[in-house]
Amino acid sequence: MSRTVHVGVDLAWNTKARSGIAVVDSSGALVESATARTDDEIVDWLTRGDWAPLMVAVDAPLIVTNASGRRVCEALIGKAYSRYHAGGYPSNLRNPLFNPPRGGELAKRLGWNLDPDHVPAMGTPVCIEVYPHPAMVGLFSLGSVLPYKSRPLRTIEVRRAAFIALSEHMETLKPLGLTSNARWAQLRSIVGSATRPVDLKSAEDEIDAIFCAHLAWLWHNDRGALQVYGSLADGYIIAPPPPTHAPAKAPKLGKGSALHSVASSTVVDV
């Protein structure tokens, strides 16, 4: 008999990069995680075994209707979270990566309902778009996003420390049960011993997918913790309500200094 699970997908915009996939059970505990490259690989991974997905959270655009600029949901997320350096990358139909969006096509192929207010049922899962950066700021009360993503001039030491901090924050999400999960222990080891960007990348997509799976579980079990930014018609993102805690203060840097250049190039992390 199939068991109910909730799915997280850290979906790359195309098949040149790997995507993270994770599954949590009905109690929210991590069951399994992995990475895949093609849509066929993702579909094969999700449709094997005795899993019956109920809620799916995808970190990638699902609905894009605007010809240019950014979606309304991206503007709303920016308004709520840009003070915490958590802005969204603009999605529009002028960009071939989003015409059509890979996430929407994958959802269509798997028969996932994109309406965030639809009540999921066995065989008719709901798929929502999420964005980990603002969700982490909101759920963990962060003053700024954790700089674990690869960016120009961001060192391996800074990224590794941010990954470790993220791992510690995620372990406070009790339903995930990460401290007793064998795969999580492996990911923690990879991050802790990383000396090259490729080492961190081998764990990054999977860790993001695990966080997305938690958001899927949370949307199904505790709607008050999250809200819809945008609309089904024009695209939406599910994230925590606008935060009320203070953002981190930016360091006082002189114009022309090396640190000023780094800060200016990383004002918003996407």
Task: Please describe what this structure looks like.
The chain has a five-stranded mixed sheet. A two-stranded antiparallel ribbon has the order 6-7. Helix 6 packs antiparallel against helix 7. The N and C termini lie far apart (40 Å). Strand 6 and strand 7 (235-239) form a beta hairpin. With 270 residues, it is α/β, with parallel strands linked by helices. The protein has one domain. The radius of gyration is 18 Å and the shape is globular. It is built from eight helices and seven strands. The chain has helices at 39-46, 72-81, 102-110, 132-140, 156-170, 182-192, 197-221, 258-265, and strands at residues 3-10, 19-25, 30-36, 51-58, 126-129, 227-231, 235-239.
Keywords summarizing the entry:
270 residues, five-stranded mixed sheet, globular
Uncertain stretches of 5 or more adjacent residues: 251-267
Number of helices: 8
Share of residues in helices: 25-40%
Query: How far apart are the first and last residues' alpha carbons, in Å?
Result: 40 Å
If you compute it from the alpha carbons, what radius of gyration comes out, rounded to the nearest whole angstrom?
Answer: 18 Å
Strand content: 15-25%
Anisotropy-based shape: globular
Number of strands: 7
Mean pLDDT across every amino acid position: 91
Spatial arrangement of strands, main beta sheet: 3-2-1-4-5
- Give the helix/strand class: alpha/beta
How many structural domains can be distinguished in the coordinates?
Answer: 1
Largest sheet: 5 strands, mixed
Order of helices and strands: EEEHEHHEHHHHEEH
